[in-house]
Automatic annotation (TrEMBL):
<protein>
    <submittedName>
        <fullName>PHOP2 phosphatase</fullName>
    </submittedName>
</protein>
<dbReference type="InterPro" id="IPR016965">
    <property type="entry name" value="Pase_PHOSPHO-typ"/>
</dbReference>
<feature type="binding site">
    <location>
        <position position="8"/>
    </location>
    <ligand>
        <name>Mg(2+)</name>
    </ligand>
</feature>
<keyword id="KW-0378">Hydrolase</keyword>
<feature type="binding site">
    <location>
        <position position="10"/>
    </location>
    <ligand>
        <name>Mg(2+)</name>
    </ligand>
</feature>
<feature type="binding site">
    <location>
        <position position="19"/>
    </location>
    <ligand>
        <name>substrate</name>
    </ligand>
</feature>
<dbReference type="InterPro" id="IPR023214">
    <property type="entry name" value="HAD_sf"/>
</dbReference>
<dbReference type="InterPro" id="IPR006384">
    <property type="entry name" value="HAD_hydro_PyrdxlP_Pase-like"/>
</dbReference>
<dbReference type="GO" id="GO:0016791">
    <property type="term" value="F:phosphatase activity"/>
</dbReference>
<feature type="binding site">
    <location>
        <position position="99"/>
    </location>
    <ligand>
        <name>substrate</name>
    </ligand>
</feature>
<dbReference type="InterPro" id="IPR036412">
    <property type="entry name" value="HAD-like_sf"/>
</dbReference>
<keyword id="KW-0460">Magnesium</keyword>
<dbReference type="GO" id="GO:0046872">
    <property type="term" value="F:metal ion binding"/>
</dbReference>
<feature type="binding site">
    <location>
        <position position="179"/>
    </location>
    <ligand>
        <name>Mg(2+)</name>
    </ligand>
</feature>
<feature type="active site" description="Proton donor">
    <location>
        <position position="10"/>
    </location>
</feature>
<keyword id="KW-0479">Metal-binding</keyword>
<feature type="active site" description="Nucleophile">
    <location>
        <position position="8"/>
    </location>
</feature>
């Protein structure tokens, strides 16, 4: 009996958007309007690339970025939840699928000593160039019309499950924990026995209830959470069963 926990990162594990939090490093903690207005829907990664160039041009160094990122608060109850999962790793495989980047997630998880809780992190690859600028790339290419150009979370989840099956690992239940519009695609991939856990008041919850109203509900069960303690309560029930 093994369960797979799939976490989004921004506004799910942490209570902020890591990409917008980095703006605290910018001069006067803000971006010039021209840069802010250069974002085009579906092309967030490219936009962040320009933000990182701006920060680099203004002399913002890696250590300052790291200090800033590790001050992001975790979502209410999340530290307890991750501690609980860490204590029960024999029952839970745990992955992150996020539109953030490897550098930010790595910094934040390691600073809080949670990196061992997660078996794999799927997110946009990032690295510092020889000139000290942070660069970010697309996670993969895909053909899903519903998702941003750089990342289809359904594709990531499906490929992970296929790879696990090849290793002889299958899951009693998949529990998907997220908040955003780009979490809907993988939630629609979940089966009847699985659970989607959208964060209360966020886009994913709204999208799921819109689908139910238009009589094309998701196949899986839906359990809304507002604190990660709600998620932990559910997991404790699972283990008791």
């Amino acid at each position: 009996m093994k369960f797979l926990l799939v976490f989004d990162f921004d506004h799910t594990i942490i209570d902020e958007n890591s990409d917008t939090w980095i703006v605290k490093c910018a001069p006067e903690r803000k971006l010039p309007n021209g840069l802010k207005n250069s974002y085009q829907p579906g092309h967030w990664t490219e936009y962040m690339g320009r933000v990182f160039v701006y920060l680099g041009d203004n002399g913002v160094k890696e250590d300052e970025m790291k200090r800033t990122m590790t001050t992001i608060p975790f979502t209410a109850g999340m530290i307890d939840l991750l501690g609980f999962i860490g204590e029960n790793k024999e029952l839970f495989d745990c992955i992150i699928v996020s539109d953030s980047n490897t550098v930010f997630i790595d910094w934040i998880l390691k600073a809080a000593d949670f990196h061992k809780v997660f078996d794999e992190v799927f997110t946009n690859p990032a690295a510092f160039s020889s000139t000290g600028y942070l660069t970010v790339q697309h996670f993969h290419a895909h053909h899903c019309a519903k998702c941003p150009k750089n990342l289809c979370k359904r594709k990531v989840l499906k490929e992970f499950l296929d790879k696990q099956l090849e290793r002889g690992v299958s899951y009693t239940q998949i529990i998907y924990i997220g908040d955003g519009g780009n979490d809907l695609c993988p939630v629609m991939f979940l089966k009847k026995n699985d659970i989607a856990m959208p964060r209360q008041g966020y886009t994913l919850e709204k999208r799921i209830s819109q689908l139910a109203q238009s009589l094309s509900p998701v196949q899986c069960s839906v359990l809304v959470w507002s604190s990660a303690v709600d998620i932990m309560s559910y997991l404790k029930l699972l283990i008791k069963e």
